[in-house]
Amino acid sequence: MAERVVLAYSGGLDTSVGIGWLADATGKEVVALAVDVGQGGEDVDDIRQRALDCGAVESVVVDARDEFAADFLMPALKANALYQKRYPLVSALSRPLIARHLVSIAKELGADSVAHGCTGKGNDQVRFEAAVAALAPDLTSIAPVRDLALTRDKAIAYAEEHGLPIQQSKKNPYSIDKNVWGRAVETGFLEDPWNAPVEDLYEYTQDPDEYREADEITLTFEAGVPVAIDGQSFDPLDVVQELNAVAGKHGIGRIDIVEDRLVGIKSREVYEAPGAVALIAAHEELEALTLERDLARYKRGVESTWAELVYDGLWYSGLKRSLDVFIDDTQKHVSGDIRLKLQGGRAVVTGRRSEQSLYDFELATYDTGDTFDQSLSKGFIELWSLPSRISAKRDLKSA
Ligand code: ARG
Q1: Residue nearest to ligand 1 atom 2, measured at CA
Q2: Residue nearest (by alpha carbon) to ligand 1 atom 3
C-alpha cells in the first residue's frame, strides 16, 4: 500500500495544487484535511469536494470552532495574550489546533507524514512543524511551497494544465489568514511600512471614524472566562462571535504593527480582532479588581512570556504547560461583571463589580467611614526606606 500524507487544506490555490504536487513528488497518497476555525467564506462541502477533484484519496472536514474557542482562545484570554503588547496571536493560536487534527487524522488513516502550504519565511511553518514534532515525534512534515519548489506561477500553470477547479479570477494582492479570533493581512502595498492601511483591507471592522451611537454592554466572567453578555448566557464561541459583531461595528481592534518574526525578519502586519481586543480589555480590568497586587504584577511577566512562546510555535512545550497551570490558578477569583462602552474604535471600561472584589470602599475612601489608619503609614515608610537611607549615608560619607 502506498504511503500517505495528510495535507492541511484551505481550499485555495496553493494547497489545491499541493495535492497533486505532493503526490507527484513523493509518490504518496494525499489525504486533505480542512479545519474550520471560524474563517467563514466558502461552504465546507465545496471545500471537501474540491480536494477530491484535485486528486485527494480522502477529504476530511472538521468543525473545530468550539474546540478552538474553549481550548485555545479562552487560555489566550486568561493570559491577556498580546505579542509585542498588541497582536492577539490570531494565526499563532490556530496552528497548534490544526496540527492536533493533522496528527489525529494521520494516526487514524495510517499516514507517515503531514504537509502544509506555508512558505519558508514565516512563523506558521514553525508552528505547524513544532506542534507536530511535539505531538507525534515520528511523523515528518513536508511543505510543498518551501521544500518542493511550488511557486505561485507554477501553481497557476499546474492548475490550468490539469483543469483543477480553482477560480483565480480576482487575485487578492494580500496574504490573509483569518479565524474567529481575528484577521491577519500582509504583503501587497503594506510591505512599505510608510503606507497607511486603506479601508478595504478590513472585513471584521467598520471605519472607527464614522460616527455611531455608542453601545454599552455588560460582560460577565466566571473564573476568567466570559459566560454572559447583558445577562444572557453564551458559550465561549458565541461570546467571541457576538463581540466581533458589536465591537467590529465600532471599528475596535484594528492593529497596524511592525512585528518581529521568529525567523528574524521584521514584517509589517495589519490585524483586526474586535472581539479579542474588547474581551482582553474587560478581562484585564476584572483582574485589576480581583487579583492581589503581587500576583497581578507577577502575572504580567508571565503573560508576555506566554504570548512569546505561543507566537514562537511552542504551544505544546513544557514551559507553556506549566505557565498554563499558573495562569489557571490565578483565575479562580476572576469572576464578576465589566461594563464596556464601545465607540470610535475603543472599548472603554466604565464599570466593574465582583463578589470576589478586593476593592474595599472603607479603605479607599477619603470621606467619612474611612477605616484606614493613616498613622501606621509613618512607621511603614520609615522601615520601607531604611535600606535607601542607610546606603545614602554610606555614599555621602565616601563622597
Ligand atoms: N504574522 C502573523 C503571525 O505570525 C500572521 C501570519 C498570517 N499568516 C498568513 N499566512 N497570512 O502570526
Answers
A1: 91
A2: 91
Give CA–CA dist 234/366, Å, rounded. Answer: 40
Domain coverage including residue 390: 369-398
Whether the pLDDT of residue 172 is over 80: the answer is no
Q: Is residue 305, in this structure, part of any structural domain at all?
A: no
Q: Which one, of 242, 256, 238, 246, lies nearest residue 341 by Cα?
A: 246
Domain count within the chain: 3
Instruction: Name the packing angle between helices 293-311 and 274-290 (round to 10°).
Output: 150
Active site residues: 14, 95, 124, 175
Beta bridge partners of 5: 30, 113
Question: 254 and 121 in one domain?
Answer: no
Cell of 12: 485555495
Query: Would the pTM of this model clear 0.90, i.e. be above it?
Result: yes
Residue 358: pLDDT over 70: yes
Mutate to test the pocket of ligand 1, among 146, 174, 177, 265 (most ligand atoms within 8 A of CB): 177
**CATH code, 142:** 3.40.50.620
Task: Give the CATH number, domain containing residue 381.
Answer: 1.20.5
pLDDT per residue over 279-337, tens digit each? 999 999 999 999 999 999 999 999 999 999 999 999 999 999 999 999 999 999 999 99
**Cα pseudo-dihedral 268, 271, 277, 280, rounded to 10:** -60
Question: How far, in Å, is the centroid of ligand 1 from the Cα of 36?
Answer: 17
